[in-house]
From TrEMBL:
UniProt enzyme class: isomerase
Pathway the protein acts in: Carbohydrate metabolism; galactose metabolism
Catalysed reactions, as listed in the record: UDP-alpha-D-glucose = UDP-alpha-D-galactose
MF term (GO), any: UDP-glucose 4-epimerase activity
Any one GO biological process: galactose metabolic process
Species, as recorded: Bizionia argentinensis JUB59
Protein name as annotated: UDP-glucose 4-epimerase
Length: 337
């Protein structure tokens, strides 16, 4: 049986690392992993060096892609994500959009029959507070200042205009290995939140390789479904309890009112019917998170919860804008009368 040559970009990332492990569980895949060489990527990928072909390089440099040839399927996950994407929009554009274009050009020249699977984002739909149920055909209206979403839309266009066979998955909120940052305050507490675990998300991409016909030349919303839905406020409440941080008791105006993204995928079951990738629920996610927190860590967090929350609150840009009466930023973050 001829093995399928699979290229995986962003192999050391949260979803990428799950995809790598799942690909290696099947003996009919030859895996090539392409990633930026960093301390983290070399440490994570080193154990697999004898099982895969490992290419380190910069996707923004076409020369670094020259050894990518004879590929049958591509799982393209490499990207600059928020908050870095918002802080360095030019870098995000170079990696997410131009990098995708570079990869497509290399494949068109040396692997024209490759099946290209692209990882897009729910952020392309923009703020859905008022209309949280999302369909594929909905207009793509990124929130104001969302550089990441803009790069994803342009990359989607490059994929669709390519000569390759392709599919695009717009990922819901992928929860796993997330670090608390200033972004937590950008998201309104009343956001409708549908998550997917990294391993379910990776499973969709891996399963798609053997179901190319069912998903080719189509765009899908990828989420965990009804069992993975919750409000953002309740999500944070449960997360804080797991980590020993007590109540979600931040002051008024700590969280934005608008200009973020997320929602419920009204048509997300379509992809599930094609690929049968969902295994985890919201309860599974919280159980996995709880396993990561030792009793010692939880006790320490409980003891120091006040300074931890103080540190987090110092990163709230909405609160800073409100306290400083920054009219431009207040208009960006809040529904002002």
């Amino acid at each position: 049986m001829k093995k399928t040559n699979v290229l995986l970009t962003g192999a050391s990332g949260t979803v990428g690392f799950e995809a790598l492990q799942q690909l290696l569980q099947k003996d009919y895949f030859n895996v090539t992993a392409f990633d930026k060489k960093t301390k983290l990527s070399t440490e994570k990928l080193a154990p697999f060096k004898n099982q895969i072909t490992l290419i380190y390089g910069d996707i923004t440099n076409p020369k670094d892609l020259e050894n990518i040839k004879d590929v049958d399927a591509v799982i393209h996950l490499a990207a600059i994500i928020p908050p870095l994407a918002d802080e360095m929009p030019e870098l995000a554009h170079n990696v997410n959009t131009k990098g995708t274009q570079n990869l497509i050009q290399q494949l068109e020249a040396h692997s024209p029959n490759a099946f290209f699977m692209y990882s897009s984002s729910i952020s392309v739909y923009g703020d859905r507070i008022e209309n949280p149920y999302i369909h594929i055909g909905d207009p793509l209206i990124p929130s104001e200042g969302d550089a990441y979403a803009e790069t994803k839309i342009k990359a989607e266009q490059a994929v669709q205009n390519s000569q390759l066979n392709w599919t695009i998955f717009r990922l819901a909120a992928i929860m796993g290995n997330h670090k608390m940052s200033k972004l937590m305050f950008h998201q309104p507490l009343n956001t409708a939140l549908e998550i997917a675990t990294p391993r379910d998300t990776a499973r969709a991409f891996v399963n798609a390789i053997e179901n190319e016909t069912a998903v080719a030349k189509q765009i899908f919303n990828l989420g965990g479904g009804e069992t993975c839905r919750i409000s953002y406020e309740h999500f944070l409440e449960r997360s804080f309890a797991i980590f020993g941080l007590g109540k979600l008791d931040f002051p008024e105006h700590a969280f934005a009112d608008k200009n973020f993204h997320c929602g419920y995928y009204a048509d997300g079951d379509v992809l599930e019917k094609n690929l049968n990738f969902r295994q985890d629920t919201l309860e599974d996610f919280f159980a996995m998170e709880a396993e990561k927190v030792s009793s010692i860590k939880k006790m320490a967090a409980c003891i120091f919860k006040k300074p931890v929350k103080w540190y987090l609150l110092k990163q709230s840009e909405p609160l800073e804008a409100w306290q400083n009466n920054d009219k431009k930023l207040k208009q960006h973050f809040f529904n002002l009368q």
